[in-house]
Amino acid sequence: MIKNLLFDLDDTILDFKKAESVALQNTLRMMGIEPEPRILLRYSEINQEQWKLLELGQITRAELKPRRYRILFEEFGLDASAEEAAATYEQQLGIGHYFMDGAEEALQRLSQSYRIYIVSNGTAVVQHSRIASSGIEKYISGLFISQEVGFDKPSPEFFSRVFDSIADFSKEETVIIGDSLSADIKGGLAAGITAIWFNPRKTANESGVVPHYELRHLSELDELLRAIR
What we know:
Blueprint: E1 4-7, H1 16-30, H2 37-55, H3 61-76, H4 82-93, H5 103-110, E2 115-120, H6 124-134, E3 142-145, H7 146-149, H8 156-165, E4 174-178, H9 181-191, E5 194-198, E6 213-215, H10 221-227
Parallel strand pairs: 1-2, 1-4, 2-3, 4-5, 5-6
Helix pairs in contact: 1-4, 2-3, 3-4
């Protein structure tokens, strides 16, 4: 029987793509740069590339923050400070929140039968601010942010720290639910727990990482969890 639910935060519980878009546009305008669609699209691509490098341990979080802006500004020939942009963006990203469809209702419902933990690779100050804004603390039993844990998903060390912090922990009673195949699913599989890929956008899986289950909407999670033995 499943008892512990490890939920990713960004694009699983909270809509990071929407928050990112709003924060990025505000940041660029504050830097005197018009947030044209081509700039926004390229930032998103660069950002994903940098997070992949972080997951692979090839860059640090401190390097990632200004690096994505430095690459962006150089590509578009923009005379702006990457460090200033990174600081402004982080401040903007921590303002407000947007739920994924059905996420708040799912947390409210599931928290009555399971212990819910948030496992996130996000920046600590931003994630704490967004979680406080969303009001989901009352549904969760614990919060594990990689910057505070000391390791990033999908590293074994991250999951070991999480497991050691959960009372009466059992891998057989634990699942991870997340949208990232490279961080959530790969990490969960390597750690020996059931991995549920949250894929609302029906993205094709060409990663070679095979989840135990795939989920389109969080309303489907209740029945799936009851079926897992």
